[in-house]
Design brief:
Layout: H1 2-13, H2 20-38, H3 40-66, H4 71-93, E1 109-116, E2 120-125, E3 137-142, H5 143-165, H6 167-177, H7 179-184, H8 189-214, H9 221-236, H10 241-256, H11 265-271, H12 283-286, H13 297-308
Antiparallel strand pairs: 1-2, 1-3
Helix pairs in contact: 1-8, 1-9, 1-10, 2-3, 2-4, 2-8, 2-9, 3-8, 5-6, 5-8, 6-8, 9-10, 9-13
């Protein structure tokens, strides 16, 4: 959800928004404030619109003024914005986590996986009855994560249809590649770019609302997820919406699946018949279990992508 908004901004404007995760955090906090007044579902619609308006105002009042100075100035001003947003969030909502709970409709389990020695693997919609889990291993899949997956897929499909199947999408794409021609046809290119930046921030705000009820809403949530967004975009291909989707899947699997593996390179070498002892060169690295290095694997993948395929998995290089 976050990488699609960042990809939209970069592919349409050429701006790598360093404060994208900050808009994600603002979306969670704005929704938290609106929930107490309007309820969750109206907040789910209004919070992204408010965050999008904030993003459009930032583009109009600040980012547009430094656009002529190149990418370094754009990076610096968005990087500075992330610090300003963090301080404002702490001033308004405090430095501790806020109790942003999901609505009753999204509480509980979407389905339960039951692994039984006698009956194998079975799936039960909702939460399984306690008697089914007495002699079997049960794993509940939270409703909030199922809702997050559904919203992410709907967002991806809607964004793809907007950019490739509508007149608005054609105007947006033409504004980046042929701005003079678009202006000659009567379109306000700066306004189009402002709306694109605001829309990307609104997508981050929507991700913030869903992420706020799924995870913890606190001031460090932007820093926690900010770095991995850029890994996803680089791996998938900067500017590629399909690449953002594929990169998200790859990075997500790379972060989670190794957590179940207790083996190490030393274990693999031993299974191949080689002897690994503390005197073996590189032994401190060889003995590291895969689950212990799972968090750095996406960054290692990004380094390999930058070395061997700089345009990413589905990106296209422009000469």
């Amino acid at each position: 959800m976050l990488s699609s908004g960042l990809t939209l901004i970069f592919s349409m404007m050429g701006v790598l928004n360093f404060a994208h995760a900050s808009f994600y955090m603002v979306g969670a906090y704005v929704a938290y404030s609106l929930v107490g007044v309007l309820g969750f579902w109206p907040a789910l619609l209004l919070a992204p619109l408010i965050v999008g308006a904030m993003g459009a105002a930032f583009e109009r009042l600040a980012l547009r003024r430094v656009h002529k100075f190149g990418h370094v100035a754009e990076l610096l001003i968005t990087f500075g914005l992330s610090y300003v947003v963090l301080e404002l969030v702490q001033l308004v909502w405090g430095r501790t986590a806020v109790p942003f709970s999901p609505p009753p409709e999204l509480q509980g389990s979407a389905f339960t996986l039951i692994s039984s020695p006698t009956q194998g693997l079975s799936l039960v919609l909702g939460k399984a009855a306690p008697e089914l889990c007495t002699a079997a291993l049960c794993s509940n899949f939270p409703m909030t994560k199922a809702f997050m997956m559904a919203v992410a897929l709907l967002m991806l499909v809607a964004l793809w249809l907007l950019l490739t199947r509508t007149r608005v999408g054609l105007v947006i794409q033409a504004s980046l590649t042929h701005p003079e021609m678009v202006e000659a046809l009567g379109h306000n290119v700066p306004r189009v770019l402002m709306l694109v930046f605001g829309s990307g921030c609104a997508l981050a705000g929507l991700a913030g609302v869903v992420g706020g009820i799924t995870f913890v809403t606190e001031p460090n949530m932007a820093a926690f997820i900010g770095a991995i967004i850029f890994v996803v975009v680089v791996v998938g291909g900067i500017g590629s919406l399909a690449g953002a989707f594929v990169g998200s899947i790859v990075v997500g699997l790379l972060q989670t699946l190794p957590l179940t593996v207790d083996g190490s390179l030393a274990t693999a070498l031993t299974a191949m018949g080689l002897t690994v002892t503390p005197e073996t060169p590189g032994y401190p690295v060889l003995r590291l279990a895969l689950k212990d290095v799972a968090q750095i694997l996406p960054y290692l993948l990004m380094v390999l992508i930058l070395i061997f395929r700089p345009k990413g998995l589905l990106g296209t290089r422009e000469d």
